[in-house]
Amino acid sequence: MQRQKAGRYEVWVSGGEEIRAFIPEPLPPSPPLAFDGTLQQSLEKATLALGRLDGIGTLLPDPALFIYAYVRKEAVLSSQIEGTQSSLSDLLVFELDDAPGAPVNDVVEVSNYVAALEHGLERLRGDFPLSNRLIREIHGVLLASGRGSVLHPGEFRTSQNWIGGRRPGTAVYVPPPPTEVANCMGALERFLHAREDGLPVLVRAGLAHVQFESIHPFLDGNGRVGRLLITFLLCQAGVLKDPLLYLSLYFKQNRSDYYTLLNEVRRTGDWEDWLDFFLDGVRQTAEGAFATSQRLSQLFSADRERIQQTGRRAGSALRVHERLMSRPIQSIGDAAESAALTFPTTAAAMNLLVSLGIAREITGGRSNRLFAYDAYLSILSEGTEPL
User: Fold this and answer.
1) Mean pLDDT on 204-233
2) Number of folded domains in the chain?
């Protein structure tokens, strides 16, 4: 549905050129959303897929193993959209305080994303509301170090930003002037907490994401925070018990449609087309995550069976395999400590896993060797190839 007004433009002059900054109308849209047959079906399919994903604990022996790695896959994808070139393996090695050959600046930014996500979830689990204060906290963690650390982490901007082009006058999109940011974000916060409008949580998340991106309240990191906002909303509402839904891969694979639909919302107020796209992304992403969990469950089971067939050596090898399930890149020392085994026993067990093709040494045989659970990493890394 096209609406006459999705926002207004404020025209002002800066540096001798005229600039048109967009100020979005507060949510929810007016007139109300039209839940016709197509949009309603999209909502129902997305809700069903999300429900199946939330039951992932019935598939995996320890869902926390999957969540650990899946969160890091999302960190890589979301950061790639902003131009980083790190891989999932780069991040996992970096977290072991050893990143040979990895682009350190990029890995730091991806690691910050993980920290920001974990900070937000911890606050929400402590019953802290999803609010502008929390959004600023998350942004502060996200930009705590790395290239964005000089761009006022944790603070709403006090200067004009823009998207595309070398200056606001030639930009593809100019968000609200800095004088309007506090008002716009205050209205968004009220919408996040509203319940009287009767909107389903998934719809609220889709609307809030666009609104946040339109406001662009920070000088850097808006895209990453805006994508995190979706997951935080779903977790706060109890739709997901664990942080398992991330749309970065869907947005990456459909980025042309993504940007076109964002602009259409601003230009014509067509929220329905955007929501149809968003909800289809939720469905596809939830189904993909569920299928990934099934593949990992089958992989773990098949590999355990192969290990068990090795006889008396199987006991320690199974314990080391369990540590690789927890963190798919490990050193002998880390695996020994977490598995409560001696270093020689762990080394022998890891060598057995290597001989079975389950683990692979990735550091060229030097000291402080690292071993990767290749099949696990291969499944998780699908779609994370740099743009």
Assistant:
1) 97
2) 2
